[in-house]
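Hi V.,

You were right to ask for the full record rather than a summary. Here it is.
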Amino acid sequence: MATHQLQQSVARRSTRLLAAVHELHKQGLQNLAIYTSIAPSGLHWRCQLIPLHHLTIEGDCVEVIADNGSYEPAHHSSGDGGNLYFGWEDARSDTARELANKIRDRFPRLTASSEGRNYHHAGWFSEMLGIAETGALPVMRQEHYPSTPGQIDSTDNHIQIPAPPVPQSWEFQGKRFAYQPGPHLKPDDDWHTAYQRIIDNWRSSEIALLPAYPVDTCSLYEHGAYWEGAIYYIQTTLGFTRIDDFLAELERRDSNSERWATLRWTWDNQGQFIYLKAFLVRHMLQDSEKYSIDQKTRGKWAEWLKGIEAIHAAPSTAVHRLPNPYFGGSNPLHLGLAFTHHHDTLVRS
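Predicted structure:
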Protein backbone atom coordinates (compact mmCIF):
# COMPACT_ATOMS: atom_id res chain seq x y z
CA MET A 1 0.00 0.00 0.00
CA ALA A 2 1.31 3.45 -0.89
CA THR A 3 -0.62 6.61 -0.15
CA HIS A 4 0.13 10.30 0.18
CA GLN A 5 -0.53 12.41 3.27
CA LEU A 6 -2.46 15.60 2.47
CA GLN A 7 -1.81 18.88 4.21
CA GLN A 8 -3.98 19.12 7.31
CA SER A 9 -5.91 22.14 6.05
CA VAL A 10 -6.55 20.52 2.66
CA ALA A 11 -7.70 17.28 4.29
CA ARG A 12 -10.05 19.24 6.58
CA ARG A 13 -11.62 21.11 3.65
CA SER A 14 -11.95 17.92 1.62
CA THR A 15 -13.64 16.24 4.57
CA ARG A 16 -16.19 19.05 4.47
CA LEU A 17 -17.34 17.68 1.11
CA LEU A 18 -17.82 14.24 2.66
CA ALA A 19 -19.76 15.86 5.49
CA ALA A 20 -21.98 17.57 2.89
CA VAL A 21 -22.78 14.17 1.35
CA HIS A 22 -23.59 12.94 4.87
CA GLU A 23 -26.01 15.87 5.22
CA LEU A 24 -27.71 14.79 1.97
CA HIS A 25 -28.01 11.26 3.32
CA LYS A 26 -29.90 12.70 6.29
CA GLN A 27 -32.24 14.37 3.79
CA GLY A 28 -33.13 11.01 2.20
CA LEU A 29 -30.50 10.78 -0.56
CA GLN A 30 -28.83 7.71 0.91
CA ASN A 31 -27.88 6.31 -2.50
CA LEU A 32 -25.60 9.27 -3.18
CA ALA A 33 -22.13 7.71 -3.24
CA ILE A 34 -18.53 8.78 -3.74
CA TYR A 35 -15.74 7.43 -5.91
CA THR A 36 -12.33 8.57 -4.74
CA SER A 37 -8.80 8.36 -6.08
CA ILE A 38 -5.36 9.93 -5.98
CA ALA A 39 -4.21 11.99 -8.98
CA PRO A 40 -1.39 10.43 -11.04
CA SER A 41 0.94 13.11 -9.64
CA GLY A 42 0.24 11.77 -6.16
CA LEU A 43 -0.42 15.28 -4.91
CA HIS A 44 -4.21 15.63 -4.98
CA TRP A 45 -7.20 13.69 -3.69
CA ARG A 46 -10.11 13.36 -6.10
CA CYS A 47 -13.76 12.73 -5.32
CA GLN A 48 -16.61 12.08 -7.72
CA LEU A 49 -20.25 12.13 -6.59
CA ILE A 50 -22.16 9.30 -8.20
CA PRO A 51 -25.39 7.29 -7.71
CA LEU A 52 -24.51 4.15 -5.76
CA HIS A 53 -25.81 1.84 -8.49
CA HIS A 54 -23.16 3.23 -10.84
CA LEU A 55 -20.46 1.62 -8.69
CA THR A 56 -19.47 -2.01 -9.06
CA ILE A 57 -16.81 -4.39 -7.75
CA GLU A 58 -14.31 -5.67 -10.33
CA GLY A 59 -11.98 -8.18 -8.72
CA ASP A 60 -10.94 -6.49 -5.49
CA CYS A 61 -11.45 -2.94 -6.78
CA VAL A 62 -14.35 -0.51 -6.70
CA GLU A 63 -15.02 0.74 -10.23
CA VAL A 64 -17.41 3.14 -11.96
CA ILE A 65 -20.01 1.93 -14.46
CA ALA A 66 -19.95 4.19 -17.52
CA ASP A 67 -22.88 6.59 -17.77
CA ASN A 68 -24.50 7.99 -20.90
CA GLY A 69 -25.23 11.40 -19.41
CA SER A 70 -28.20 10.52 -17.20
CA TYR A 71 -26.85 12.74 -14.40
CA GLU A 72 -24.50 15.72 -14.11
CA PRO A 73 -20.76 15.02 -13.73
CA ALA A 74 -19.61 16.05 -10.25
CA HIS A 75 -15.81 15.93 -9.89
CA HIS A 76 -13.81 17.51 -7.07
CA SER A 77 -10.04 17.81 -6.64
CA SER A 78 -8.19 18.85 -3.50
CA GLY A 79 -6.01 21.12 -5.62
CA ASP A 80 -6.23 24.88 -5.12
CA GLY A 81 -6.62 24.63 -1.36
CA GLY A 82 -9.12 21.78 -1.21
CA ASN A 83 -12.20 24.00 -1.06
CA LEU A 84 -12.81 24.87 -4.71
CA TYR A 85 -15.67 22.40 -4.67
CA PHE A 86 -16.58 21.44 -8.25
CA GLY A 87 -15.01 24.73 -9.38
CA TRP A 88 -17.50 26.81 -7.40
CA GLU A 89 -15.83 29.97 -6.11
CA ASP A 90 -18.93 30.86 -4.09
CA ALA A 91 -18.67 27.65 -2.03
CA ARG A 92 -15.16 28.07 -0.62
CA SER A 93 -16.33 29.15 2.84
CA ASP A 94 -19.54 27.09 2.96
CA THR A 95 -20.47 24.93 5.91
CA ALA A 96 -21.23 21.29 5.15
CA ARG A 97 -24.96 22.01 5.18
CA GLU A 98 -24.60 25.03 2.87
CA LEU A 99 -22.48 22.97 0.48
CA ALA A 100 -25.09 20.19 0.59
CA ASN A 101 -27.76 22.67 -0.44
CA LYS A 102 -25.67 23.81 -3.41
CA ILE A 103 -25.08 20.21 -4.48
CA ARG A 104 -28.79 19.53 -4.39
CA ASP A 105 -29.62 22.70 -6.32
CA ARG A 106 -26.88 22.42 -8.93
CA PHE A 107 -26.91 18.65 -9.55
CA PRO A 108 -30.68 17.96 -9.72
CA ARG A 109 -30.46 14.82 -11.90
CA LEU A 110 -27.64 13.36 -9.82
CA THR A 111 -29.51 13.86 -6.57
CA ALA A 112 -32.80 12.63 -8.05
CA SER A 113 -31.00 9.43 -9.11
CA SER A 114 -29.71 9.01 -5.55
CA GLU A 115 -32.99 9.30 -3.65
CA GLY A 116 -34.12 6.58 -1.30
CA ARG A 117 -33.25 4.97 2.01
CA ASN A 118 -30.20 2.71 2.11
CA TYR A 119 -29.22 2.02 5.69
CA HIS A 120 -26.25 -0.19 4.77
CA HIS A 121 -24.62 2.46 2.63
CA ALA A 122 -25.49 5.35 4.95
CA GLY A 123 -24.08 3.42 7.91
CA TRP A 124 -20.85 2.67 6.08
CA PHE A 125 -20.57 6.30 5.03
CA SER A 126 -20.99 7.50 8.61
CA GLU A 127 -18.18 5.19 9.78
CA MET A 128 -15.95 6.25 6.89
CA LEU A 129 -16.63 9.93 7.65
CA GLY A 130 -15.49 9.42 11.23
CA ILE A 131 -12.19 8.01 9.94
CA ALA A 132 -11.85 10.85 7.41
CA GLU A 133 -12.24 13.40 10.19
CA THR A 134 -8.94 12.09 11.63
CA GLY A 135 -7.22 13.05 8.36
CA ALA A 136 -7.45 9.68 6.56
CA LEU A 137 -9.58 10.33 3.45
CA PRO A 138 -10.84 7.27 1.54
CA VAL A 139 -8.95 6.20 -1.59
CA MET A 140 -10.78 3.66 -3.73
CA ARG A 141 -8.30 3.71 -6.58
CA GLN A 142 -4.67 4.62 -7.04
CA GLU A 143 -2.29 3.64 -9.78
CA HIS A 144 -0.20 0.49 -9.32
CA TYR A 145 -1.17 -0.17 -5.70
CA PRO A 146 -4.08 -2.60 -5.29
CA SER A 147 -5.98 -2.53 -2.02
CA THR A 148 -6.33 -5.41 0.41
CA PRO A 149 -9.46 -7.45 -0.48
CA GLY A 150 -12.47 -6.06 1.36
CA GLN A 151 -10.65 -2.83 2.17
CA ILE A 152 -9.91 0.50 0.51
CA ASP A 153 -6.87 2.62 1.19
CA SER A 154 -6.74 6.08 2.68
CA THR A 155 -4.52 9.15 2.50
CA ASP A 156 -2.87 7.91 5.71
CA ASN A 157 -0.65 4.95 4.84
CA HIS A 158 -1.26 3.43 8.28
CA ILE A 159 -5.04 3.25 7.89
CA GLN A 160 -7.33 1.18 5.68
CA ILE A 161 -11.12 1.52 5.54
CA PRO A 162 -13.73 -1.20 4.94
CA ALA A 163 -14.88 -1.22 1.32
CA PRO A 164 -18.32 0.34 0.68
CA PRO A 165 -21.36 -1.97 0.40
CA VAL A 166 -21.71 -1.79 -3.38
CA PRO A 167 -24.92 -3.41 -4.72
CA GLN A 168 -24.57 -6.63 -6.68
CA SER A 169 -24.88 -5.89 -10.41
CA TRP A 170 -24.73 -7.91 -13.61
CA GLU A 171 -25.40 -7.71 -17.34
CA PHE A 172 -27.98 -9.67 -19.31
CA GLN A 173 -28.51 -9.27 -23.03
CA GLY A 174 -26.75 -5.91 -23.07
CA LYS A 175 -28.66 -4.39 -20.13
CA ARG A 176 -27.26 -3.88 -16.66
CA PHE A 177 -29.21 -4.89 -13.56
CA ALA A 178 -28.53 -4.16 -9.89
CA TYR A 179 -30.29 -4.75 -6.59
CA GLN A 180 -31.68 -1.76 -4.73
CA PRO A 181 -31.60 -2.49 -0.97
CA GLY A 182 -34.76 -1.88 1.01
CA PRO A 183 -36.78 -0.43 2.55
CA HIS A 184 -38.58 0.40 -0.67
CA LEU A 185 -41.66 2.32 0.48
CA LYS A 186 -41.80 6.09 0.78
CA PRO A 187 -43.72 7.57 3.74
CA ASP A 188 -46.74 8.58 1.64
CA ASP A 189 -46.91 5.42 -0.50
CA ASP A 190 -50.03 3.30 -0.88
CA TRP A 191 -48.37 -0.09 -0.46
CA HIS A 192 -50.82 -1.75 -2.85
CA THR A 193 -49.60 0.39 -5.75
CA ALA A 194 -46.08 1.47 -4.67
CA TYR A 195 -44.30 -1.15 -6.79
CA GLN A 196 -45.98 0.06 -9.94
CA ARG A 197 -43.65 3.07 -9.83
CA ILE A 198 -40.63 0.91 -9.01
CA ILE A 199 -41.30 -1.55 -11.84
CA ASP A 200 -42.11 1.13 -14.39
CA ASN A 201 -38.88 2.96 -13.46
CA TRP A 202 -36.62 -0.04 -13.85
CA ARG A 203 -38.03 -0.89 -17.24
CA SER A 204 -37.24 2.62 -18.53
CA SER A 205 -33.84 3.12 -16.83
CA GLU A 206 -30.36 2.55 -18.19
CA ILE A 207 -29.60 0.40 -15.13
CA ALA A 208 -32.57 -1.65 -13.94
CA LEU A 209 -32.74 -1.31 -10.15
CA LEU A 210 -34.51 -4.41 -8.87
CA PRO A 211 -35.96 -4.20 -5.35
CA ALA A 212 -34.03 -6.54 -3.09
CA TYR A 213 -36.08 -8.98 -1.01
CA PRO A 214 -36.68 -6.98 2.22
CA VAL A 215 -35.28 -9.60 4.58
CA ASP A 216 -34.09 -6.97 7.08
CA THR A 217 -37.60 -6.00 8.12
CA CYS A 218 -40.77 -7.76 9.23
CA SER A 219 -42.93 -4.80 8.20
CA LEU A 220 -46.24 -6.03 6.79
CA TYR A 221 -46.34 -2.99 4.54
CA GLU A 222 -42.90 -3.65 3.04
CA HIS A 223 -43.62 -7.31 2.43
CA GLY A 224 -47.17 -6.70 1.29
CA ALA A 225 -45.92 -4.16 -1.26
CA TYR A 226 -43.16 -6.53 -2.39
CA TRP A 227 -45.58 -9.37 -3.14
CA GLU A 228 -48.24 -7.05 -4.56
CA GLY A 229 -45.50 -5.91 -6.92
CA ALA A 230 -45.10 -9.51 -8.08
CA ILE A 231 -48.83 -9.72 -8.85
CA TYR A 232 -48.58 -6.45 -10.78
CA TYR A 233 -45.54 -7.68 -12.70
CA ILE A 234 -47.12 -11.00 -13.64
CA GLN A 235 -50.30 -9.32 -14.86
CA THR A 236 -48.91 -6.24 -16.62
CA THR A 237 -45.42 -7.22 -17.76
CA LEU A 238 -45.87 -10.95 -18.38
CA GLY A 239 -49.48 -10.44 -19.42
CA PHE A 240 -51.31 -13.12 -17.41
CA THR A 241 -54.80 -12.70 -15.96
CA ARG A 242 -55.33 -16.42 -15.35
CA ILE A 243 -53.38 -18.38 -12.75
CA ASP A 244 -53.60 -21.68 -14.65
CA ASP A 245 -52.08 -20.11 -17.76
CA PHE A 246 -49.30 -18.55 -15.70
CA LEU A 247 -48.49 -21.81 -13.90
CA ALA A 248 -48.35 -23.68 -17.20
CA GLU A 249 -45.97 -21.12 -18.71
CA LEU A 250 -43.91 -21.06 -15.52
CA GLU A 251 -42.96 -24.69 -16.16
CA ARG A 252 -41.66 -23.99 -19.66
CA ARG A 253 -40.41 -20.40 -19.31
CA ASP A 254 -37.73 -19.27 -21.71
CA SER A 255 -34.39 -18.97 -19.93
CA ASN A 256 -33.32 -16.36 -22.52
CA SER A 257 -36.30 -14.12 -21.76
CA GLU A 258 -35.35 -10.95 -19.89
CA ARG A 259 -38.87 -10.63 -18.48
CA TRP A 260 -38.91 -14.13 -16.99
CA ALA A 261 -35.35 -13.76 -15.74
CA THR A 262 -36.30 -10.50 -14.01
CA LEU A 263 -39.19 -12.25 -12.26
CA ARG A 264 -36.74 -14.83 -10.94
CA TRP A 265 -34.08 -12.31 -9.88
CA THR A 266 -36.58 -10.11 -8.07
CA TRP A 267 -38.94 -12.59 -6.43
CA ASP A 268 -37.01 -15.87 -6.28
CA ASN A 269 -33.38 -15.05 -5.59
CA GLN A 270 -33.66 -16.69 -2.15
CA GLY A 271 -36.23 -19.35 -3.02
CA GLN A 272 -39.09 -17.16 -1.76
CA PHE A 273 -41.26 -17.42 -4.88
CA ILE A 274 -42.60 -20.76 -3.63
CA TYR A 275 -44.86 -18.81 -1.24
CA LEU A 276 -46.42 -16.79 -4.03
CA LYS A 277 -46.86 -19.88 -6.17
CA ALA A 278 -48.58 -21.65 -3.29
CA PHE A 279 -50.80 -18.62 -2.72
CA LEU A 280 -51.79 -18.56 -6.40
CA VAL A 281 -52.49 -22.31 -6.45
CA ARG A 282 -54.72 -22.05 -3.37
CA HIS A 283 -56.51 -19.06 -4.87
CA MET A 284 -57.09 -20.97 -8.10
CA LEU A 285 -58.50 -23.99 -6.25
CA GLN A 286 -60.87 -21.77 -4.26
CA ASP A 287 -62.14 -19.73 -7.24
CA SER A 288 -64.41 -22.30 -8.85
CA GLU A 289 -66.32 -19.60 -10.72
CA LYS A 290 -63.27 -18.65 -12.79
CA TYR A 291 -61.41 -21.99 -12.89
CA SER A 292 -63.07 -25.21 -13.98
CA ILE A 293 -60.54 -27.80 -12.80
CA ASP A 294 -60.97 -31.55 -13.27
CA GLN A 295 -60.66 -33.77 -10.24
CA LYS A 296 -57.29 -35.21 -11.22
CA THR A 297 -55.68 -31.78 -11.63
CA ARG A 298 -57.31 -30.51 -8.45
CA GLY A 299 -55.97 -33.49 -6.52
CA LYS A 300 -52.47 -32.98 -7.94
CA TRP A 301 -52.34 -29.35 -6.81
CA ALA A 302 -53.87 -30.17 -3.41
CA GLU A 303 -51.14 -32.74 -2.79
CA TRP A 304 -48.51 -30.23 -3.90
CA LEU A 305 -49.80 -27.72 -1.35
CA LYS A 306 -49.65 -30.33 1.39
CA GLY A 307 -46.03 -30.96 0.51
CA ILE A 308 -45.24 -27.25 0.63
CA GLU A 309 -46.88 -26.97 4.04
CA ALA A 310 -44.98 -29.98 5.37
CA ILE A 311 -41.61 -28.66 4.23
CA HIS A 312 -41.92 -24.90 4.61
CA ALA A 313 -43.97 -24.69 7.79
CA ALA A 314 -41.08 -26.17 9.77
CA PRO A 315 -39.65 -23.80 12.39
CA SER A 316 -36.19 -24.25 10.85
CA THR A 317 -37.32 -22.47 7.70
CA ALA A 318 -36.07 -19.01 8.60
CA VAL A 319 -37.57 -17.18 5.62
CA HIS A 320 -41.02 -18.49 6.60
CA ARG A 321 -40.90 -16.17 9.62
CA LEU A 322 -41.11 -13.18 7.25
CA PRO A 323 -44.60 -12.09 6.14
CA ASN A 324 -45.43 -13.96 2.96
CA PRO A 325 -48.48 -14.61 0.75
CA TYR A 326 -49.21 -18.18 1.84
CA PHE A 327 -48.77 -18.76 5.56
CA GLY A 328 -50.80 -16.81 8.05
CA GLY A 329 -54.36 -17.06 6.70
CA SER A 330 -56.32 -17.20 3.45
CA ASN A 331 -54.86 -13.88 2.25
CA PRO A 332 -52.90 -12.31 5.13
CA LEU A 333 -51.32 -9.63 2.96
CA HIS A 334 -54.57 -8.80 1.13
CA LEU A 335 -52.98 -9.12 -2.30
CA GLY A 336 -54.74 -8.18 -5.49
CA LEU A 337 -56.29 -4.92 -4.32
CA ALA A 338 -54.24 -2.90 -6.82
CA PHE A 339 -56.46 -4.19 -9.61
CA THR A 340 -59.91 -3.77 -8.04
CA HIS A 341 -60.91 -1.46 -10.92
CA HIS A 342 -60.05 -4.13 -13.53
CA HIS A 343 -62.67 -6.53 -14.82
CA ASP A 344 -60.32 -9.49 -15.31
CA THR A 345 -57.45 -9.89 -12.85
CA LEU A 346 -54.95 -12.55 -11.83
CA VAL A 347 -56.14 -12.47 -8.21
CA ARG A 348 -59.77 -11.62 -7.49
CA SER A 349 -60.24 -10.20 -3.99
